[in-house]
Amino acid sequence: MKKTFKFIASLVLVLSLVLGMGCTAFADSSVTYEGGAQDIVFLPGSGYTDTDLFEGFKNVMPGDEIEQKIQVRQSIFAYRPVRIYLRAITHDEVDNPLSPAVAASESVASMEDFLSQLGMTVHNGSKLIYSASPDELDGLRNNVLLGTFSRGESRTLTVTLYVPIELGNEYANRVGEVDWVFTAEEIDPGENPKTGDYSNIGLYCGLLLLSMLAIGFVFFYLRKKKKNS
C-alpha cells in the first residue's frame, strides 16, 4: 500500500523593503525529507517564522535582482524513495490569516499590494515552474512534482526576486507573506520506478543470439580445420 505523508508548514516568503540600505548575501537554504517522525526539516528560520527559507530576500532595494537557492533533498537516513511536491498558498482574512509578526504591520490588502509590485521566477533545475508576482499562485497553484528522490539525492530550486527600480518610498519597510507547502509521498518498494531502458530489449536479445551463433560457427570451423590438417 502506498503511504502518503503531507507536511504543511507555514514556510513564509517574507520580503522587507528598506530603501537606502544595502543587501546582505546569505547562504543557501534547504528542505530535507528525513523519514520517520521528523519528516521535513526547513532551514534556516527568521524573526518572522521558524520555517523561512528566504533570508536572502530581506532588506531589498529598488532595482535589486536577488537569487536564492534552495536545496531539496532526501536524507541519507531515509529508507524509501520519495516524491516531493511544492505548491503555494496565499493569505486571506479567514482561512489563512497572516502570521502575528507580519500582521503587526500589514493587512492582507496592503501585503498583496506590495507583493504585486514585485516579480519572481522559480526554476526546478533548468525547468521554469513559476513566473509571476509573489502574490499570484501561477504554476504553483496545485502541487508541482519536484522529482523522485532516492536516499541522499538532491535537487536545486533557484528563486529569483525582481524589485522594480521605480518602486517608491511608500513601500519602504513593507513585508509580504506567502506560504509554500512541501508534500512528501513515500513510494512502496513494489512501485519503485524502473531505471533501465527496456524499449529495445528484443533487439538486444537478437544481437546477442547472432553473436553466440557467430562464435559457435567460428569455433566449429576452426575445430574442423584442425581435424583435417
Q: Care to describe what's here?
A:
The structure is a single chain. With 229 residues, this protein is α+β, with helices and mostly antiparallel strands. 18% of the residues lie in helices and 34% in strands. It has 2 domains: 4-191, no CATH class; 201-229. The chain has a 6-stranded mixed β-sheet, with no helix packed on it. A 4-stranded antiparallel β-sheet has the order 1-12-6-9, with no helix packed on it. β3 and β4 form a beta hairpin. Residues 1-10, 19-26 and 195-199 have low confidence and may be disordered.
Keywords:
single chain, 229 residues, alpha+beta, 2 domains, six-stranded mixed β-sheet, four-stranded antiparallel β-sheet, 12 strands, 18% helix, 34% strand, elongated
What's this model, at a glance?
The chain has two domains: 4-191, no CATH class; 201-229. It is α+β, with helices and mostly antiparallel strands and 229 residues long.
State the secondary-structure class.
alpha+beta
**What oligomerization state is this entry in?**
single chain
The amount of helix comes to: 10-25%
Rg from C-alpha positions? 27 Å
- How are strands sequenced across the largest beta sheet? 4-3-5-10-7-8
Count of DSSP strands: 12
| Outline | elongated
Number of helices: 3
SSE order, one letter for each helix or strand: EEEEEEHHEEEEEEH
- Counting structural domains, the number is 2
Overall mean pLDDT score? 77
Pick out the low-confidence regions.
Answer: 1-10, 19-26, 195-199
**Termini separation:** 68 Å
Q: Per DSSP, what share of the residues sits in E-state strands of 2 or more residues? A: 25-35%
**Biggest pleated sheet:** 6 strands, mixed
